Every structure is written in structure tokens, then in C-alpha cells.
Amino acid sequence: MLSYFRRHGVSDPLSLADEVIIRVTKKVEEVAPTYVGNPVHYFLAVARYVLAELWRQPLQVELAEDLPALSASEASAMKELLLQSLEQCWTHLSPQEQNILLRYYLETTAQTVRQSREELAQDLGLTVNALRVMTHRLRGRLRRCVKNLVEKKKDEMVIPIPHH
């Protein structure tokens, strides 16, 4: 179960695994007499349900109280800086890497995502899991590149201070 939650990017897989175990133990007397098959499948079904519940919850982020609010012009400048950085980092990827990321992430419906990723993996001679790892690493490279550029450029930015 831990690997299941880690694969889905959960920040605290241990607590979710605990929740699954608690739920299964509460139902074991009710389900066990009629359950046929490998119990692992039941645990994974409960894990999927717990994960779906987690995703339906609104994201809660704690912000520092002394965090300065960005003005509209500062927010606009930051968006522009992020876009410029992403564009610049995108050019550091090879055309093949760009194509892989575009094909992997730009899908329209949930039904076609799985099929198109299987096709992409087959085209590249990879398993779907290897493709997933590859795209995760490429996305990580992009994220680190953007972060580094933004930090470097933020130091160079001069944000206009409104006069009263």
C-alpha cells in the first residue's frame, strides 16, 4: 500500500496506509465470511477509495503570517517571469524530450490517457512504468531549471514601489 500511495504522489503515505488498515479491520468480521480471492485486492480497493477521498478534499496549505501580499503588478511580473523561465528551460530539452512530454500530458479525456500513454511507451520501446519514470524525471528537470532561473532573475528584477 505504501508504494501505491507513493506512486500517486501522496505526501504522507504512512497515515493513509494506517487509515486503510483501520477501515479493513473494522469490516473484517463482516466481509471475511463471504470474501473470495486474494485479500490484497480488497486492501487495494480500500486504498483507492481512501485516495479518491483525499483528492476530493480541498488542498489546505499553511502560509506564514508575515508573507507579503503581491500587488497586481507584482503578480503580473511574477507570472511573466515564470512563463519566460519555462520557455527558456523548455528549449534546453531535446526535441524528442519535448515531444514525449507533450504526448504524455496533453490528452483530452481520461479514457484516452491510458491508451495514448501505452501507445507512446510502445513507440519508444518502453514499458508504461518506465515511461512514467522518464516523464517524472523530465518534469523534475524542468521544475528545477525554472526554479533556478526564477531565483536568479528575481534578484535582478526591480519591482516598482507605489508612492503614496
What topology does this entry show?
Layout: H1 2-7, H2 13-31, H3 39-56, H4 72-90, H5 95-105, H6 110-124, H7 128-156
Helix pairs in contact: 2-3, 4-7, 5-6
Describe the largest sheet.
none
Q: Are there runs of 5+ residues with pLDDT below 50, and where? A: none
Helical segment count? 7
Number of domains: 2
> How far apart are the first and last residues' alpha carbons, in Å?
58 Å
Q: List the helices and strands in order.
A: HHHHHHH
Strand percentage, roughly?
Answer: under 5%
What does this structure look like?
The chain is an all-alpha fold and 164 residues long. The chain has two domains: 2-56, no CATH class; 72-156, Arc Repressor Mutant, subunit A (Orthogonal Bundle), CATH 1.10.10. Helix content is 71%, strand content 0%. It has seven helices and no strands. It has helices at residues 2-7, 13-31, 39-56, 72-90, 95-105, 110-124, 128-156. Helix 2 packs across helix 3. The chain is flat, with a radius of gyration of 22 Å. The model has no long low-confidence stretch (mean pLDDT 83).
Primary descriptors:
164 residues, mainly alpha, Arc Repressor Mutant, subunit A, 7 helices
Give a brief description:
By secondary structure, this protein is mostly helical. The protein contains seven helices and no strands.
